[in-house]
Structure formats: structure tokens, C-alpha cells
Fold these 2 entries.
Entry 1:
Amino acid sequence: MGFLFWKKKDKLEAAETSEPEITEVEAPVEKPKRTLFGKPKPKPEPTPEPVVIEPVEIVEEVVVPEPVLVVEEVVAEPEPESTPEPEPVLEVVELPKRSFAMGIKSLFTRIKFDPENLDELEDVLIQADFGVIAAELIVAEVKNRAKKQGAESEQELKSILEELIAEQLERDDKDLNLSSGQLPYVVLVVGVNGVGKTTTIGKLSKYLAEAGSRVVIAAADTFRAAAVEQIATWSERSGATLVRPKTEGQDPASVAFEGTEKALAENADVLIIDTAGRLQNKVDLMNELDKIRRVVEKNCVIAEVLLVIDATTGQNGMTQAKAFAEVAGVTGVVLTKLDGTAKGGIVYSIQRELGIPVKLVGVGEGIADFAFFDAREFARGLVS
Amino acid sequence: MFGNLSDRLVETFKNLRSKGKLSASDIDATLREIRRALLEADVALEVVKNFIEAVRVRALGDEVNKALNPAQQVVQIVNEELVQILGGQQRKLAFSKKPPTVIMLAGLQGSGKTTLAGKLAKWLKDQGQTPILVAADLQRPNAVNQLQVVGERAGVEVFAPEPGNGKGDPVKVSKDAIKHAEKKQFSVVIVDTAGRLGIDEELMEQARDIRKATDPDEVLFVIDSMIGQDAVNVAKAFEDGVGITGVVLTKLDGDARGGAALSVSSVTGKPIIFASTGEGLDAFEPFYPDRMASRILDMGDILTLIEQAQKQFDEVEAAKLAEKLAKDAFTLEDFLDQMQQLKKMGSMKDLISKLPGAGQMKSQLENFDEKEIDRTEAIIRSMTPMERRQPKVLNGSRRLRIANGSGTTVTEVNSLVNRFEQAAKMMKTMAKGGMPQMPGGMPGMPNIGGGYAGGGKSKKNDKKKKGSKSGNPAKRAAENTGQPYGNSGSGSSFGL
């Protein structure tokens, strides 16, 4: 399934519906960057068959299939006047699905996985940062199911494990909450230092812009040296409007507020707010985040608060998630740097214990290197 | 979730008291707890396994069975082994005999290289060196700008001939930087490289080329203390791919336990040289293996406690007190002052429960009477100034008068005077840099083992006496004036 996104309808497009989208589609033909994505799923019909993970060569294909298709209810008829959508000015855009399983290194590169060394599974999971407790629980459950099903071969055990991880992580609220129709959708991006917040914003902004939406970015990281320049570069690459702090070290909340004003004035679809990295045990900085939230809510509804977590993060990820969830009301996790050797197992516990879904995945430094999280794909990437 | 390791071990050993001896299965149970604690602190599994084996061998030996408190003895062994792996003692930065000294920084994306480059430059500058920063991260958007800003803040020149953002050749920039530094007589060249993944062959190759081109005296591997199990893979990849000479642990001002430190030292055998503890340019310090060991083991929340103490203790008062201690002029008045300072830090129960091993004292804590301090205060306030300054003059009739005046009994007055004398003696020893044998009770607070007032002070005093040992002139100066080094607001990893 692709990702549905209600955006404000372009006046141009409102006139004639069928054709122009396609031109827009062609725009983002990506330079063959890194090859960490598998094939993007065109999503023609709901084939539940798992994405076959093709070998790396397919980069050329990457954006070819109609990634942005306007699914206005009335596409068949020539007159699109009576769209029964949430609001007549909005249109539904389906964003292309991207695959990230290729980027994940399998858990079982070093050991063989068979009934004899089922106990080693615990070690393997611990090494993937699942944590001792989660690892023990998973192993117990795999054993339990294997017994019930009489599973013996490596393949059978692997599929039990894959199924288990996938079903534990499967959620129906994993899509970005960008369909309420209350524009602009405000996305607040938070996290500790160096996890990839700015890069994530660049990618997300580009992705949304490709779907024809107007994006405003508020550079509310007024603390770190040259952070504003960094987001400015990304903003330029993605064609978004940037709201900069007027003075150095301006109160981040006021930059965020100016962001909301700009977004409203420009009739933007999405406002993304970049915040400074902060360690969760710094009370003052966490309070600052709370303030940003409060100030933004004067003007807009916050659609998403995304917590960015680096896949290399160990058990401290849990502490991060708890602290940010409490202060900032995190609605989703972005798991970045999954293209390295780290597996990001900590998100399993975060999602299971705190109920915060993983929504996005980052797999490289290129502007196209990200995908929407998919539990099955994640499980398959880990186990295969 | 869980208490700290000490508490959990005490729990494991609870049934043991009657037996008095540790069986192999007792030790197994203990080691399981230690294993879990280390894994929760993100020490890599393979490192944990080797470590546990080493501890097992020692734990089965005599030293544990003969110990009065086997649980603590085991923790002690674990601690010693940890410190040993972490490098035993600090290693200093290596300088080239023929300047410029070249320091290359390498690590994953977001590990904190650029920020660290600025701190290192400032630190070196404060030591009288003339460092120059080299912008060889031409990949991340505006990394060059960031380094320029950092350099400006540190008051250090930045060599940045290329704009970055994907343009320019970092190898050439590094090479040119060395020539530039030689010509302009900079004494240290710090090369900030792009973040790279260990498995990115192309970029690792580039890092090797930079190394070849600059022939650095130190290749510092910069790693985030929040990293999990992957630390071993990353460390190996950088050790094999670039070759490192030392490690810098960053973001230690967070609350991660930092098991990665152990993984990295153990896998690479390279010492951790610095700890980076905040975003300010001064939030930077040499690495202390022993403190890191306590942190990984979570031996009590000493960190918070000391931070609290640092904030609350009046620096000037503390300096005066240190002087008095050294001159043997510690009086009951000072004692009273000290107690009032202590009270500012909050409830005693709360304070003591943060100390390591406090778990064992829980029942005593429950019984602890906060009023006890008030009574002590009352007794001292009922004394004349002379009595406070020279407790020796307190004869029987004076003591009776004081007891009546404060609404206590002579016995209570006696015991306070005794405790005071003990405390004064203890503090004198510590002020001279010795390690005192903790007497039975904390002055002013009966029934609680091991005193904090003395402990906290002693660290301060210790530090003052030894202050001049610091290799960093700024830090030395700071110590000598009694100011905490660095901005305590930015948080020190170890609380000192």
C-alpha cells in the first residue's frame, strides 16, 4: 500500500485532471545515487505477495512507475467538479512506496540458524540491540511456536521469527498523519544530537514536494553552529520555503511561530519544524521543546511529532523515547542510518513498550534515501 | 525498572548470609546479574562474554570467600577488571617532535566530530599551542560552515579552501593544510573528516588516503556514548580501515551508561583519551577509566549527588573550610555551617538514598529522623562562641547548661562532641590527602554508616590539593581559584 496524502488542490490541476500529474512525476527522476532501495512498489493492485528484493542494479527503475497518481474519486468522468473528498479543495495524492529491506543487514550473517543453536538466537537479538528482555521474550515465543508447529528446518524457524517480529511491530497507525485535512500539517522533528534530524527533514520535504505539495521549513535549531545553513541547503534542494531566525540565537519557539505564520500566509500544505538536538536529561532544553509545542499550537494543530533515533543507538534509545514522548508528545519514530551495520533493534522495545509506531526509515545521506516503515519488510530484512 | 547493580547483587546474595560461603551456583547467579547489567549498559555481547569469564575465574578464587561481604567483593572485582580494560590510567595526547603535530578525527555520521574539533582546538590553544582546524568534511551540507563558526568561537584559524557540500577533494585539502601549517608555523593541525560508515568501502578508502597524505601523529576515533552493540563492528571497521591511535567518547553528558567505551577499548586495545561532555567549547575533559567503570556498572547515583553538591556548596565557604582543615582550625561553628549547607541540598533521606549501596541501608533510612539534625543544631546554638571554637573547654557544668538550653540531655551533648572530634580528625586526614578509615557514624547523624559530608568535602579538598597536577593550565587555574572547571551547567559526565 502506498501512502495517501491529502493536499491542497492546485488550481491548475483543478481545471484538467488526468494528464499534468504525470509531468510532475517525471521531474524527480533521481540521479542513480546509492543503491540501498529495492524496487519501489508501484502499487497497481493490492498484490499481497511480498516485495521480492531485487538485486541492486535496478536503480534506474527507481521512480519510473507512476508514483504520484491522483486518485480523485471522479477520475473516470471528465468533470471533476463534484469531488466527495473531505473538502473540495483537497485532493488525495498517493505517494510511491519505497522499499528499504535491502539496506538492512541480516541478523544471521555470522551464525547458522537452526534448531540446534536456537539459544544463540538470543545472542543474535541482543547484538541487534533488541535488549536482554525483549530478546528473551522473542526466543521463548519462537521456541513455543516451533514446538507447536513442529518446525524443524532453518527455513521454518526463520519464517516463524520473521512472522513474530512482523506481527509484533505491525500497526495500523504507522502512516504519517497527513490526511486530516487541517492544513497546514505541522511536523515537529525532535531528537538527541547527531541522529540525523536535519537530513531527515530534507528528505521528507523533497518527497512531499515531489507530490506537488508546498512545504515550509522552520529552522528552529538556532543553537548549533551553522545548523541554519545546513537546513537551508536541504531546503533549497527540496524546493521548500525556509523560515530563518532573524538573529543568531533567536528563541527557537519564536522561529517556529514565524514558521506557522509563513505557512498560513503561503497556504502551505506542510510545515516542518527543525529543532536543535538535545539530550533527554537536560531539563531546560526539554522545557524549551514544550514551549515550542505550546507556541505552535496557538496557530496550528500539530499533526506529527517525529522522534529521530539513530539505528546505532543502544538501550539509551528507550530512555530517549520515554523522555521525548513525555515532553513533546511523540507520535512517531524515524529510524535513521539503517544503511550501516546497526539493526536498530531498540525500536522494537520502543514500539512495544511505549506504543509509539516507527513511521520512517533513513538509509543514507542522499535526498532520496528514505522510506516509510513497514513491519514485514523490516522483519524480512532482519531475518533473511 | 531495576535497581542498580549493587542493589541487585545484594538481592542475589541475600540468602547467602547463613551459609557464609559462595558456591559455584551462587557465583553463576551473580555473574548472570552482572552480564545483564553490562548488556543493559550496551557493552557488546562478545566483550561481555570474555569479561564474565575473567571475573568468574577471580570470583571462584579465595579473595571472594574470605571477604566479609562477598557481594561487594564481587562488585569490586568487576570494577577492577573494568578499569583495567578501559585503560587503567589516562593516556596523554602524543605530540610530534617536529611540529606540526597532526591530529585526524574519524567516525560515524553524527558522532560529534566537528564539535569536538572545536573543543580540542580550544583546549590546545589554552595550553599554549597554535592549532589550526582543517575542513576536510566536504560532504555533509554546510559542515565547512559549521567548522568555521566553531573555529571562530574557539578563536582558532580554519583552513577551508573548498566550500564543501560535495565539492572538493578532502585528500588534497588535508595535504595542502599541512603545507600551509608548516609555512605559517602552526603547531597542531586538526583534520575534521566527513562522517562515514564502516562498511562504506569508498569512503574508508578516502579516509586511508587522508591518513597517508597527512601522516598524522594521532588518529582519534570519535564515538557517541549512546551507541549500542554495533560499537564493536564500527570500531573494528575503523581500526582495520583507517587505523586509529586513540578514542574520544562524546555526548557523555547524556544519561547513557556508555558501555560502548568498554566495547571499543576491548576490541581495539586503543586507549580512550578524551571525554566530550556538552555542546559548549569547554565541555571537554581527559578520560577517567575509574569513573567510567562506575558509570557503566551504575554504582549508585553519585553523579547527580555530586552535581547537586557542587551547585549547593558555596564555593567561597568551601575554600575557607579547606584552609581551616589544613590548619587544624575546624570548629563546631564550621560544623554547623557545613550542616546547613548540607540541608540546602534537600532531605537527608533523599540524599543518602542516592549513595551507592544505599539499598542495604533502606531500613535504617526509614528510621532516620530528620529532626536529629535540628537537635544537633540546637545543641551547637546553645554553646557560647568560645565553646564552639574550642570544644576542649566543655566541662561537666557547661555540658549540663547546654543540654538544658537545647532541650536535650547531657548524653546527647557528649555524643555530639565525640562525633565532632572524630569528624575533625577524619577531615584533617583527608585534607592532607590521605584516605581515612570511615568511623562508625557520620557526624551529626547517628545510625547511618559512611558519611557524605566528609565524602563530598574530601573530594573537593583532595582536588584542591592535587589541583596543580592537571595538565591543562585552564583547568589548573580553575582549580586553584576554587571554581569548577568548565560550565557546570553544561554538565560533566562524571560530576567532578
Note: Chain B touches chain A through 50 residues (CB under 8 Å).
Entry 2:
Amino acid sequence: MIRILAFLGAALTMATGGAQASTPERIIASLSQKSVGITTDFDGSQIFVFGAIERDRLADERDEELDVIIAITGPDQRVILRKKDRRFGIWVNAESVEIDAAPSFYAVASSGPLQGILSETSDLRHRITIDKAIRLVGEAGKVANPGEFSEAIVRIRRDKGIYFEDIGGVEIISGTLFQTTVDLPANLVEGDYQAKVFLLRGGRVVDDFATKIEVRKVGLERWLYNLAHEHSLLYGLFSIFVALLAGWGASEVFRQLRR
Amino acid sequence: MQIYLPIAEMSVNAFLLLGLGGAVGVLSGMFGVGGGFLMTPLLIFIGIPPAVAVATEANQIVASSFSGVLAHLRRKTVDIKMGLVLTAGGATGSVIGVQIFKALRELGQVELLVSLCYVVFLGVVGGLMFIESLNAIRKVKAGVTVPKRRHHSWVHGLPFKMRFRQSKLYISAIPPYLIGVAVGILAAIMGVGGGFIMVPAMIYLLGMPTAVVVGTSLFQIIFVTGLTTVLHATQNQTVDAMLALLLLLGGVIGAQIGARIGVRIRGEQLRILLAIMVLAVCFKLGYDLVATPSELFSIGDGAGH
């Protein structure tokens, strides 16, 4: 809370600063946390994004057309998308497309409907909407209808709740301060997440700000993952040992109970 | 209570997994099957990646069959000699199976071939067992004593004859070894112990008494699934220890309960119940292959293992 108040103060100082010819507006933003630890009982997390719009004059009615878009992107993954087709009466994986980069997570929060506040060119340049964030390079020529594949990945991941939009989720206060909360789901993949804040005027991106959120497995999760990848034989034997121990344990407990 | 799985990289409900493990464990103890043929499709259904489901299930079966085999050892219903011959074959088979699994994963056809394997094997085994045990029940009702089948075929002319005292058999070691190999391959590809094939194979192909079959099947399953676990862990890194732990905690308790229910049911009744269950899973998977899926697309991992 203190941090938010400090920002409020800073923003007001800026806003009441000089009265020179209008320099472009700039954006200052921060996050409630810069890292997320995936623990054994990890059940999702919330990130509070807040900030201020910096300008060399007081906010007035011109600033009502200002908009803010906040995008949080998970690490890019190379994925293979397969389409099923009926062959000899059964459904088999037929056509496939390798997608060079698809974010493992994508959340967009905005202060208004995206089509209304964001121009096509700005979207293309900054890759803000989910459709633009997915890159289908090279391989697209191999299938009859590549568009169908990029639509499918968005649809599947939307259903899983790892791609989503929060239209109107960003609140702008007196044309100067803004804030939103982004829910990170429980099925989060490890990696460096990008948080980007875009300031828009008339569909055009005026300024943007980017920062990193580190999502890491911690504690037992970290230990097991490392063991599985770095000492896989030991990990395999350890898994069997635990299994035998549990099997023997249950057998003994039940033998005692029967007496 | 939600638990995050480090290898599957997803969060699941711990009680759901404990319950699944327990329910499948009961069946495992009753029938001498690992229960993998039920559990692996169930895990895939709740969203666990197929590669992780298959590998982790192998690990869980180690626990439930060990728990079950201890109960059988106390009742002396394990033919250890037969078990070792089957295990030798099983070890060979699982090495081959893990290689096949790896190759199929690269081709993107793992799911299809796993499903096809399930439908074919469950269908044949379930169907045959159902018909046979139905006939046996009819004969028992009619008051006819079932004559002990003694077929003297080419099988008895094979070399490496061994005496299996517990099974009351004097046969060549080659047929059980080959059965072991076949089951080992399937175990690695399907994420099962192979009990549902092993049990009928021992009864009908080797002519072992039903009482010894369950314990012996469990005995060899421990070794085959143990090896499969290590191979999947080292070659594919797809064993999720956290998932396995949750499943096996439920599983070992269930297996103990199952083993006690099992001894109270007659052999042919036990077989008909197992047959019905096997057929039910077969029909469900077969239907999924033929019915138009609601989502034609699927996302695979493009790392290209």
C-alpha cells in the first residue's frame, strides 16, 4: 500500500511539474511481485500491476481518450499442433504444423475493448493480441489451411484457462493512475514471464514499459525436477524404492490390523 | 487440496488421485492385474500428458503389486520359479518396448497406437475370458465336474524342460519366456503391468491353476514395471514422483483390501468379473477412436525428443 501511495505522490509531482510545450506522455509501472515460486501446494497466484502516466501538464479532457493495455506472456514454446482426420474409419493424427513460438501463457487486460483502442498496425508491431503473439513461420505452407491451426492453439489454450483476456480490467483513475490484477492459474509453466504495459492514444502506442516476472519451481518441486533431469537413473531407482516401501508398509499395516 | 506435479507441470486435486489409486488398487489385489489398463486411460482423461501417464503408472504398479505379492507369499500362492522365467522374458520385452515408445513419440502417433493396442488386446483377452468363464459357470451349475485339461501338443516337445512344483507343471521354459517378452513390450508401450494378458496366458496357454496365477503374475509384474520405470526415467524423463506417490498411497491400501476380497470369490466368477471390466474399457476406447472428437486439434511438445 505504501508503495502505491509513493507512486501516487510521484505521479502528482510529475503531473504538476513544468508547463512547457507538451512532451510525449510516458508510462511508469510496477508489479506487486517480481517472482513467483511454484511450491507443492501452488494453487495459482495474483499479480497486481499498477502505475502512472507521466506528462508535463495537468490531466484534462484530452486524456479521456487515453487507454492502457497490460499483457503478461509466458515463455515461448515450440509446439507441434496436430489435426486429426478420419482414416479407415478411425481418427488419427494426420496433418501437423510446427509452431516456432507460442507463449505458454498469455493474459491481456485493457481499459477498453481491444478493437476499439488498438489499431491493426500497432497490434502487428507490438504483438499485443493473442493471435499476433503466435508465430507460424516456414512450416505454414505445408498444410491446406494454416489459419485453422493458429486458431486451434488459441482455442485449446483458452479452454485450459492459460490464454485469456480481461477487457475493461484496467482501471484508469483521473487520466493519470492505473491498476489491474492478473490471475496466474495453477497449471503454470516455469520460466521468465514478460509483463508489458502499453499506453495508447487514438489506437497508437505512445509509450510502453516492460519488466520480467521469474516463475520458478521451489523446494521439493525444484529438487524432484532437477533430480529427474540431472540424475535420472538415481531418480528412477528412488521412485522404485518409494514404491516398494509403500507396498511393504501397507502390507505390514494390514497384517497388524488383522491380528 | 491442490498439489503441483513437478514433471507433468500441472496442478491436480490430491484427493482425486488418492481415490483413483485406491479404487484401482482394490481391483489390482482381487484379480492380480496391476490395474494400469484402467489407470493409464483415466490419468490421460484428467489431463496428464500421455507420456507422463504411461511412465508414472509403471512406477505406481510396482507399489501395488509388491503390496499384493506379499499377501500372496504368506498364503504360498506364488510360483517363484515360473515368475523368474517370466521376468527374464519381461525384462527383454520392456527394453524393446521403451525403444518403440520413444520412436512412436517422435512420430506423434503414440496416442493412436496406445489406444489401438488397448482395443485389440483388451477385446481379444476380455472376449475369450468371458466366453470361457461363462461356460465354466454353466458346467458348475449343471453339477458337472470340469475335467482337468491336459493338452499334449507340440509345446511339450520343446527343449529346456523345467519342473514348476507350485503350478504342478513339467514344461519347457520357452513358452513362459516368450509370453514374458510379449507382455514386457506391451507393459512399456501401454503403461500397464500386463497382468490382464499375463493372467489369461498363464491359465489358458500354460495351464497353470488359477490359485497360483494371481500371485505369480504380481510377482513378475514388480520386476517388469520396475525396469520400465527406470528406462522411462532415464530415456524420457517422464516419471512424475509426486503423481506416483499420490497414486500408490491409495493403491497399496486398495490392493490389500482387494486381495482379501479375492480369496472369497470362486475362480470362474473372478474371471468373468475381470472379463467384463476388460471389455468395458475396450468398448470405451474403441468408441473414442471411431466417434468424431469434439476437438480435432491437439498440442504436442515440439522439443523433438
Note: The mean pLDDT of chain A is 81.
